[in-house]
Amino acid sequence: MAYTLDTAAAAERITAAGADPTLARAIVAELASVEATSSKHLATKADLLALEVRLVRWGIGLAAASIGILFALLRFTQ
User: For 43, which DSSP code?
Assistant: First the structure.
């Protein structure tokens, strides 16, 4: 879900709560900065799907390698 901060409305609400307008604008600017920075690090559904595919492939490869090692050990121990 996308979220966009309405900076003007937020500054007005902070000012209406009794804060100095300059302080209100500074608070809102900092919140907007944090929002812009943190949204870059969010995973999308496509990111999660790609990760799931890689993990499944890795698991299948690990299982195949384990079976190959098991057969090799059985063959060399007989």
Answer: P
